[in-house]
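User: Show me an example of a complex going from sequences to C-alpha cells.

Assistant: Sure. Here are the input components:
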Amino acid sequence: MATITAGIATSHIPAMGAAFDLGKTEEDYWKPVFEGYKWVKKWVKDEKPDVVILCYNDHASSMMLDIVPTFAIGFAEEFHPADEGWGPRQVPVVPGFPELAGHIAEQLIIDEFDITIMNDIDVDHGLTVPLSLVFDKIDAWPVKVIPIAVNVTQFPTPSGNRCFCLGEAIAHAVESFPQDLNVQVWGTGGMSHQLQGLRAGLINPEFDNAFLDRLADYPSELRKITRLEYIQEAGTEGIELIMWMIMRGALGEKVEELYRFYHVPASNTAVGHMVLRPVRYGGK
Amino acid sequence: MRDRLYSLEELEKIQGTTVFNARRSREAYHLHKFCMSLMEEKNRKTFKEDERGYLDTFRMSENQKRAVLDRDFTRLIELGGNIYFLVKLSNTDGWTTVKAVSSMTAMTPDEYAAMMLAGGRQPDQS
C-alpha cells in the first residue's frame, strides 16, 4: 500500500534557484537562507521517499494564458524544466509517475474534485526550486514527481479550505494504491509577498508566524482564512500559501512538527519552510 | 442569492493593490501574448530592433502599447497586466525583478532594496 509518510512546505522563490544555480549560496545575502535547508537535505537521505506529490503554481511559463485550470495534475513520464526567458534551469529532467497520477486523477474526479489532466507540461521554478532545496545538486532526482498545479494567479483562486479538502482526497487516493510506496506531499510558495502596486514589497511576519504556529496543530483555524484575508494580510502573491493547505490536508488530523524555518528576505519574499510527520506514520 | 464571506468589491479596496481577476486577464490577453513571445530570443531581438513595429503585430490596445514603450508597469497593471507576464518584458531589458517591482512603488530601486533588506514593507506602512 502506498503511504504518505511526511509533508514538506517551502517557498519556491526564483531568486533562490538562481543563487543555487550560480553557486552563490555561501554569499552573505544568501547564506542564512540556505542554512535553513541544511536540516531537510540530511533528513531526506534517511527518509528515501519514492514519490513526491508536489503542489506548485506555474508563473506564466508554460500555463496560465490560453487555458487556466484551477487544479491540474501532471500525467507524463517526464517533465522538462521550463525556459522562463533565460534558458531552462540546468537541473535534471523530472521523472513522472503516470500509473499513480492516473489513479489519483480517477479517484479525485470520483471524489468530486474535477481536476484537469496535463499530458504535456514543462515545469518552472515553482516545482524545480523546491526539488533543489531538498535534494541539492544531483545528477538525477531520486524520486518520481506528480505535479499538482494550482491557479493562484488569476482570481478567484481556489479557497484555502478547498485546497485542504483536495489534500484529504489525495490522501485517500494514495492509500488505495496497491503498490508499496513511500509518498511525500509538498506544498510550495509563499510566504507573504506582493510583487505589484504601491504596496509591493509587503512582508507580514506576524501573519506568517501565526500561520506556521497553526499549521501542525490547528489547521482548522487556517481553513477559515478567506482569499480576501490572504491578499490583505499576505499580499497578492502571498495567497500561494493555499498550496500549503493541500499538503496539510493530506497528512491527516494529527501531525508532528519536525522542523521549521523562517527568514526575511529573499528577493521580494518571506521564506518559510516546515517539515511535518503524520502521527499515523510514527509522528509523536 | 447565496451568502458570501465577503463581497468582490472589497477586493478592489485593498490599498496599493490590484487583484488580477478574470476580467483583467481578458483585457490583457493580447498584452500577455506579447509578453510571452519574449520568451524566445529571436522575438526579443525583433522587438528590440523595432519596438513599435513589433507591438503592432499584436492586437493590444494603443494604451497598452504606449505603456510598454514607456516601461510603465503601474499603467500596465491598470490596463489588466499581471506581474508574472510583465517580468518577461523587464527581463528582456535586463532589469532585475526587484527593479521592475520597485518601479511601481514610490521608491527608487535602491530605496526599495534597502526596505526589503530591513524586513520589507510592514502591513501598517503605506
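The lines above are the inputs; the final block is the predicted structure for all two components together. The mean pLDDT of chain A is 96.
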